[in-house]
Amino acid sequence: MTPHNEAKLGDIAKTVIMAGDPLRVKYIAENFLEDYKLVNSVRGMYCYTGLFEGKRISVMAHGMGIPSMGIYSYELYHIYDVDTIIRVGSCGAFSEKLNLLDTILVDKSYTESNYAYTFDGVKCNIAYADEELNKKIEEVAQQENIEYVKGTVLCNECFDLYLPDKEAIQRRAPDGIDLIASEMEAFALFYNAKRENKKAACLLTVVDVPKEDKGMTTEERQTSLNNMIKLALKTAKLM
User: Fold this and answer.
1) CA nearest neighbour of 33 among 14, 47, 44
2) Within a 10 A sphere around the Cβ of 232, how many other Cβ atoms?
3) Are strands 55-61 and 15-19 parallel, antiparallel or unpaired?
4) Less packed terminus of the chain by CB within 10 Å, N or C?
5) Which of 133, 152, 144, 149 is closest to 201 using CA atoms?
6) What is the CA radius of gyration of the chain?
7) Chunked in runs of 10, what are the mean pLDDT values of the chain (239 residues)?
8) Which of 102, 160, 208, 213 is catalytic?
9) Which domains does the chain show, CATH number per domain?
10) H/E/C letters for each residue in the chain?
């Protein structure tokens, strides 16, 4: 056990689906898993372990932001010996080509955070999803006829809708970095996976399209992301 997780060794499966919102994790367990059991509720960061189509899988909350994801993913990889984490989350669109409820498969995450430097003394601002895992996700998406957009996202330390100049980070991004959307956790997940020699991927659903003044209610965010959840679970079954 850790200060953040009361699960015992063996309670958490080798493959974990993570979401920021504990209620989204509860929703996934109740609607997609069989014979599930709550194995962690410390700080309200629920973790359930159960069966998806016969495969033992855990779903766990990671909270909001790089530090929170950094803690929970590190503990899963380093202490609970998890092999694979697939994050399912929401994001705000930067690209005008994205529409509400589009699914994004993240290939790399760019951040202005000093997470890597603080952790390892490494000046690193780009972290990559596992190529093999992403390939499996793409194969499952094709089989399940789930459309997706693959691209680079910003891992922001501030909620982008609250920024006075929402496009400033895009302007500051290095040449060749085409940011299609903004979220807040993927960099820490990818970085931790690499340093622990584990696998990580991130699927996102577009829930904010600011230029069109479109958005979703809290309840809609929680319950209407089923394509992304299904894609993550179907992939997790193969791991």
Assistant:
1) 47
2) 28
3) parallel
4) N
5) 133
6) 17
7) 93 98 95 98 97 98 98 98 97 91 96 96 96 98 96 94 86 93 98 98 91 66 79 96
8) 208
9) 15-236 (3.40.50.1580)
10) CECCECCCCCCCCCEEEEECCHHHHHHHHHHHCEEEEEEECHHHCCEEEEEECCEEEEEEECCCCHHHHHHHHHHHHHCCCCCEEEEEEEEEECCCCCCCCCEEEEEEEECCCCHHHHHHCCCCCEEECCHHHHHHHHHHHHHHCCCCEEEEEEECCCCHHHCCCCCHHHHHCCCCCCEEEEECCHHHHHHHHHHCCCEEEEEEEEEEEHHHCECCCHHHHHHCCHHHHHHHHHHHCCC
Number of CB atoms found within 10 A of residue 8's CB: 11
Q: List Cβ neighbours of 104 (8 Å cut-off, separation of 6 or more).
A: 91, 98, 148, 149, 150, 151, 153, 180, 181, 203, 204, 205, 206
- The yes-or-no answer on residue 35 being catalytic is no
